[in-house]
Amino acid sequence: MALNSDVMRFKADTPRDRSWHALLSFAMLCTAMFVNLILAFLHARGLPSSSGIVVAVQASVTAFAVPALFWPRVVFKGLAFGALGLIVFLTLVTNILNPFNIKSIYDTLLIPIYIALGMSALYVRPKWMNYLLFFVVTIVLIEVLFPTAYVNLFDPAGYFSSTREWVAGQKASAASKDGFYTGSYRAGGSQFAFTDHRIGGPFLEPLSLGYFAFIMSTYYAGLYRGSVLLRIVAILTCVSLALASDSRVPTALILLSTFFLILRPRLPIIVLWLTFPAVVVTFALIYYTPSEVFYGDTYYRLGITFDALQTVNIGQIMVGMVPLERAGDSGILYMLRCVGLFGVPVAIWFYCGAYVYRSGTNVAFLVVIAVYLTITLMFGGAALSIKTASLVGYLVGLAIYSGSQPDLDRASTQVSGIPVASNRAARENGSIDVHERNFG
């Protein structure tokens, strides 16, 4: 039985071992999320930076998480191994048939690595996640209240100009002249930013802050087990961060997904498998049947993907031979370059946990992640950045078992957080299915 096998697998771990490993995994996650902030700080102090250095440092940080793939708690069944193997194979094929780009391999495997890290961690203490949110809010407040000090500390404009070729090739913008990321001033004015520019905080650019806000809101709405008041405050904080970043998609997703996750719907796994194709078809219908309901630039952004695909044939799409001039503005185009037509749905399904799903997993949480990934990749590739992709993978890995489980290291507690005696009694009186786990 799945539940009992989980318990036996973790039985050899002492509570101290589990606690230290969970803390180490969380520390590795935070390092990955803020490695660019650290590099920007050092660059502002005079340390040279380049795109090659950034890629090398990010790869090194991620390499420390790779052993999680072989941790006893990380159980990839045959389907998951097959999917991961197919993803690796397709990245090799596309790199053989196209100009070799090792970063495409790294970007494709980043989320699976952090899914394994989350599965190996098994749980995260709520206070750690609270500290993470507090740290982000602190840096955001520094940028809001003391923008000059923020620029002096991290110099986002100088850092991105040195490490991103597409930024270096642009003419100086009003934002970059002020020391901020070049996209910090939205053309036509901000929709609802709190300041005269879009806030990036510890992520240095606004879009990643908006994505972080959404991802953290899903944790508090779907996985967090603790004070209801703290949950409400945390979710409202996430909404405020998304608004400060002036990111419309993350803000809308937070408002919609929060109510959905708090309702705790019990969804069949087929819903998760259908989410990606359903969202893609929805976007196609929106693009090819224009309406005044959507923002004017919505069709322009969707056109980057759909118009580009009309310039190549199906055979070229299958092997990643797609136009890359606008791949930075379409994560779907970039994913097609990385793994080809067949590989994109396989990769998205893996990223949202479909292949590592277990009986009792909170499917609703995984569905929300699938919606987030599909939508954000349609409008850009920032969702694949280590700054937020690592957090997505980590939380998906946690959700596979239980998510936030602060008392898991008690000797009498099973993976589900239900005491052994309670589980046994529940099974005997028929109030809980043998394979069912309570995810709160």
Question: Please, could you describe this protein's structure?
Answer:
It is a single chain. The protein is mostly helical and 440 residues long. 65% of the residues lie in helices and 0% in strands. The chain has 21 helices and no strands. The longest helix has 21 residues, at 331-351.
- Low-confidence stretches are 1-12, 403-440
Count of runs of 4 or more consecutive helical residues: 21
Sequence of secondary-structure elements: HHHHHHHHHHHHHHHHHHHHH
Report the mean per-residue pLDDT as an integer.
82
Termini gap: 21 Å
Blueprint (SSEs and pairs):
Layout: H1 2-11, H2 15-33, H3 35-44, H4 51-63, H5 78-97, H6 102-121, H7 126-145, H8 147-154, H9 156-163, H10 165-168, H11 174-177, H12 206-222, H13 228-244, H14 248-262, H15 269-288, H16 296-309, H17 314-318, H18 331-351, H19 363-379, H20 386-401, H21 420-429
Helix pairs in contact: 2-6, 2-20, 5-6, 5-18, 6-18, 6-20, 7-8, 7-13, 12-13, 12-14, 12-20, 13-14, 14-19, 15-16, 15-19, 18-19
